[in-house]
Write a structure and sequence with these properties.
Elements (H helix, E strand, L loop, with lengths): L1 E4 H6 L1 H7 L5 E5 L2 E5 L21 H15 L8 H8 L2
Parallel strand pairs: 1-2
Antiparallel strand pairs: 2-3
Length: 90
């Protein structure tokens, strides 16, 4: 992840737009932070009723879809209360 100033982004836009396809790029602008998120060649509809920006990133959607497929394939481990306590050291 790289955090850059808005001036640095403005001066080297091509560099940071190209870099955003492989690395997280955060632009600091006054007291705000903006993230460059590659969307590919389409703009997806956000499936979140609250328009949570987490779902704007296609990489997050891919991870969710992979997890759903793993669950359908039975590649999951049930976390019982006992296992949860052991895991957390309670």
């Amino acid at each position: 992840m790289k955090v850059i100033s808005s001036r640095e982004f403005r001066d080297s836009q091509k560099k940071y737009l190209d870099l955003a396809t492989t690395e997280r790029i955060i632009i600091k602008r006054k007291n705000d932070f903006l993230e460059l998120v590659p969307l590919g060649n389409t703009i997806p509809d956000n499936p979140s009723p609250s328009n949570d920006p987490y779902f704007d990133d296609p990489r997050n959607i891919e991870r969710i879809e992979l997890a759903i497929q793993q669950a359908k394939d039975g590649k999951v481990i049930e976390l019982t209360q006992g296992a949860q306590k052991d895991l957390l050291g309670l």
